[in-house]
Amino acid sequence: NNSSQLSSLPLHILLYVNGVYYIFYFLATLAMIIYKSQVFSYPDEFLAPDLAVLFLMAILEVPRLYLGFKGNLTEAEAPLGLSLGLTVGSVLLCVYLLLWQSYVLWADVLLNAVLLAAYGLESGLKVTAIAAFVS
């Protein structure tokens, strides 16, 4: 049956929501890093890596979401698999911001916990979609 649709609507919706949430996450995290650099004695040698991780994460987010949408809509496992690989990188950067940035505020914990939960749910849906495309 060639008319069966295998692309995942829940995955599509979650990719969209993650894209919107990531814009909020980036701006809020950037604002908090700026706030912390003003309020706390934030050593310059720690400020740069924290900012670099945030910007690297933002750079990764664009192809991660694009490949996720493309792979899902074209029902192609390769772009979806690449998106899944980039998600692993994003998770590691998110964990850095959650555990190892210079100052971690409760808002950092909340923002990163929501992002990690979304990445986890999205990864599960990607694996399910890839399995459906391959079979």
From TrEMBL:
Keywords: Cell projection, Membrane, Transmembrane, Transmembrane helix. It is found in: Cell projection, Cilium; Membrane. It is a multi-pass membrane protein. Its main location: other. The chain crosses the membrane at residues 13-35, 47-66, 78-99, 111-134. InterPro entries: Uncharacterised_TM-17. Pfam families: Transmemb_17. GO terms for cellular component: ciliary transition zone; membrane. GO terms for biological process: non-motile cilium assembly. It comes from the Eukaryota. PANTHER family: GEO07735P1-RELATED-RELATED, TRANSMEMBRANE PROTEIN 80. This is TMM80 protein. It comes from Nesospiza acunhae.
